[in-house]
Design brief:
The chain is 36% helix and 17% strand. The chain is α/β, with parallel strands linked by helices. The protein folds into 2 domains: 30 residues, no CATH class; 263 residues, Spore Coat Polysaccharide Biosynthesis Protein SpsA, Chain A (Alpha-Beta Complex), CATH 3.90.550. The chain starts with a helix and ends with a helix. The structure holds 2-acetamido-2-deoxy-beta-D-glucopyranose (3 copies). One 2-acetamido-2-deoxy-beta-D-glucopyranose binds next to α6.
């Protein structure tokens, strides 16, 4: 009698962890997903209070002040108040506006606010005044607020700096070859791409349902079995027409926690195709001399400004940056 109970107990003791594991791995969740092709819609919920923010600093050339001719490329760098050293390195390297005598380039850093001291706030203000390249608003700077930061860039470009041919959005821990960006875009005022260009490293993937993941997504948050195609948000390019349309459509669509998924949703809604180019590296490719990077447009993993500057200088000497 006792033995029988004991056996049952052992069985339960084995089954329960198994069920918990299945649940943690999200296997059951997958069964409940909706077919994207048949059921996709967005927004999912009807309680979307738009996030309000106010600009604290604007770039000095807002509304085309002091700008004689339209830029070929505007670089919008997603940064944070504390990353001053990265901004200094970027201004000297791939963010240098006068890199090419015949190509007009503008540079903007996108910032929010941190739990900052008055001193940090004053420093950001002084930096903005000195360089005139800071766009900063009073939303809290955090990983899951990156969508707000990106949309702030789209909004400012759309409403206040809308005559650039192309816009490059990039994180401040990237290496970028502006030379390869310009080559990718093509020569002259025209480009060999669609008028509506949204380009970068494209993913066609499915939501992560195992609960250990930093990128875990519940059915409540997103019930479908795949994402719309999306461009990784660390580095991507929009043509002027695509940017204006993305903002126009995006302003009516509630934000999503992940900025690259959100832009994918907006592009899907706006019928803007995403253009895949594997030379936008979202991981860090090992740097093994200039030849190894000759075709790279952008690479993640250069959060150390000293290393980034060294690599960029070598590549520039080799004529690849
Ligand atoms: C959202 O709520 C508003 C007002 O309550 C309503 O008019 C609208 O139809 C709702 N939209 C959806 C998609 O349920
Ligand atoms: C384009 O920019 C100008 C000034 O920079 C602004 O007056 C105009 O409203 C902008 N266009 C759009 C569509 O927002
Ligand atoms: C994002 O910013 C808003 C507005 O400042 C703030 O209320 C919210 O807490 C921030 N989100 C995170 C994850 O910090």
């Amino acid at each position: 009698m006792l033995k029988k109970h004991y056996k049952l107990l052992v069985k339960c003791a084995l089954v329960i962890p198994f069920i918990i594991l299945v649940d943690l791995l999200g296997l059951l969740t997958h069964l409940c997903e909706l077919d994207f092709d048949r059921h996709y819609y967005y927004p999912l919920h009807n309680e979307s209070a738009p996030i309000e923010y106010e600009y604290l600093q604007l770039p000095s050339f807002t509304d085309n002040r002091n700008i004689a001719e339209p830029p070929r490329l505007t670089i919008l760098v997603k940064s944070a108040v504390g990353n001053l050293q990265r901004r200094h390195a970027i201004r000297k390297t791939w963010g240098y506006e006068s890199r090419f005598s015949d190509v007009h380039i503008k540079r903007v850093f996108l910032l929010g606010v941190t739990d900052e001291s008055d001193a940090a706030h004053d420093a950001a203000e002084a930096e903005a005044k000195h360089y005139g390249d800071i766009l900063r608003a009073n939303f809290r700077d955090a990983y899951f607020n990156n969508t707000i930061k990106t949309m702030m860039g789209l909004r400012w470009a759309s409403e206040h700096f809308n005559n650039s041919d192309f816009y490059l959005f990039v994180d401040d821990d990237y290496y970028v070859s502006i030379k390869n960006v310009l080559r990718f875009l093509g020569k002259g005022r025209q480009s060999h791409h669609n008028k509506e260009l949204f380009a970068g490293f494209v993913f066609e993937s499915t939501p992560l349902r195992h609960k250990f993941s930093k990128w875990y997504v519940s059915l409540e948050e997103y019930p479908f079995d795949r994402w719309p195609p999306y461009v990784t948000a660390g580095a991507f390019i929009l043509s002027r027409d695509a940017l204006l349309k993305m903002y126009e459509v995006g302003r009516t669509i509630p934000l999503f926690r992940f900025d690259d998924i959100y832009l994918g949703i907006v592009a899907y809604t706006a019928h803007i195709p995403v253009h895949h180019c594997e030379r936008f590296l979202f991981h860090k490719m090992p740097y093994d001399g200039p030849e190894s990077f000759s075709n790279v447009i952008a690479s993640h993993g250069f959060g150390d400004p000293v290393e980034m500057e060294r690599v960029w200088n070598e590549l520039r000497s080799a004529n690849y940056a």
